[in-house]
Each structure stands twice: as structure tokens, then as C-alpha cells.
């Protein structure tokens, strides 16, 4: 019988010895199961006891792998997702970080859960990404993708900025604030949540717009359909440069008078979970919600 996954990639830039050990354990375990295994080439110097032909770049891994196992926290998953979403590869996470909303597998005993996943016993869901573009004088100056959120903010020095918000070319509102968080459902439990944004169920096709410290009490988070095209026109009177931050990892410079376009990416992240996964169980654990009363 054909295996659901034949070629497996192990991805992640480890911060500590425990994570490095997890990479080695995964590689050895998967090779013993007769899988073809490749590793993120950012680890080639650290994992010097693994054959050099087992290493490949993230883009090469996206092209050749059926399954990518991301070791680390949500930050590693976000970085990998922006690249892997361009390819037909399923992704699962081993949690070596702090919160781990996106990384399910326990590194201490991944074998049982991963065996079931590799046998085809798993849940698959698609998470959409955002595309963020900075337009200047009618031309796209820079762009990147975001799985969690795209944030317009003042850059290094905190100060108020002014901008107008258009949804599908229709003027919605103007804002004087520290910025705006434009979040996917995946990102609704991340930076957006700390800014007072709503938690969006991952299957919702919706985007939330969360003002950051707005200068008026009438400013409230707004949820729109994910097919809407969001345009932010930055006031030409703003001082200094602003930025659009994608997942807190990539910054696109924005000048006064620029336009920022944010819209749903044509690419999706194919995230897979063990069969016993429950989104609400994860929320209860991570956010410290109360347990059942009876």
C-alpha cells in the first residue's frame, strides 16, 4: 500500500541543544522507517554527523517533500509557512517554543502521534495567508506574505501616524493611531489578540482590522470578508518613515504618501494535525480558560 507521504523534510533553526537533539532523533527515526528524509540546510554546520546530500534549501524542500516537519515555536512555523505555502506540501509542527498554537507534536514522545499521521490518520486544514504590497507613485516597491498578520506601524520610534482605510476601493475610515494590525484567523491568537482583536475560528474566511492605540474612543476592531482588498493610504504629512511588518519577521519600508495593499494570497498553508486535535482544547490550554463546570 502506498504511503501518504514518501519524502519528508525536517525544518527549523534551533535555538538550543534540545531542539538540535529533536532534529537528530526525527532524522534517525524516519530513516529507520525507510522514509526519504531531507533537512533544512541552515542546519548543515550544526548537524555535521548527517550526510551532506541530506541537506537542501527551504525552496528545494518545498519542491521535493510531501510532508514538512517544522521543529521549534510558532516563529519557525511562520517563517517556513511563507515559503512552503507556494508548494504542494503538508506541514506539521513539533513544539520546541513557548506558546505553540501552530505546533502540535510533543518533542518528548513524537513517535506515537507521528506514526499515526504517517499512516494517514490525521486532520488536514488550509490556512490562508495575506499578501502585503507597498505602492509608491503607482508602482509596487516591495511585497511579502504573512500567515499571521501585516502591521502598519511607525517603525523604531513610537508615535502617532495618520492613514485612510479603503475596503474594495470604498472609503471606510481614517485613523490617527500607533498603527493597524490586519490579521488572518491564524494570527487572531497572536499580536492581534494582545491589541484587543477578536479570536477568529481558523476555518473562517475573514480578516480583522485592529487599530493600535487609536486617538479616538470610537475606533473598534472590524472584521471583513477575506476576499476584500484592503488599501491603506498613508498621510503625506506623517513624519519619518513607517513600516509594514509581516509576521513580525519581515519589514517593508513605507514613506509618507505611500499606499499599502493587503489582500488574501492565492497560496494556502496545508497544516495537518493528529486525529485527536481540537482547536478549542488548544485555546483553553494556551489562554488559561476555565475547565468544564460539570
Question: What would you say this structure looks like, in words?
Answer:
Strands 1, 2, 3, 4, 5, 6, 7, 9, 10, 14 and 17 form an 11-stranded mixed beta sheet that branches. Strands 13-12-11-8-15-16 form a 6-stranded antiparallel beta sheet, with no helix packed on it. A hairpin with a 2-residue loop joins β9 and β10. It is an alpha/beta fold and 294 residues long. It is globular.
In a few lines, what is going on in this structure?
The chain has helices at 17-32, 58-64, 74-84, 110-118, 191-194, 279-287; strands spanning 7-11, 36-40, 55-56, 67-72, 90-95, 122-136, 139-146, 149-153, 161-167, 170-177, 179-183, 206-212, 222-225, 230-234, 242-246, 250-254, 259-274. With 294 residues, the protein is an alpha/beta fold. The strands form 2 sheets. Strands 1, 2, 3, 4, 5, 6, 7, 9, 10, 14 and 17 form an 11-stranded mixed beta sheet that branches. Strands 13-12-11-8-15-16 form a 6-stranded antiparallel beta sheet, with no helix packed on it.
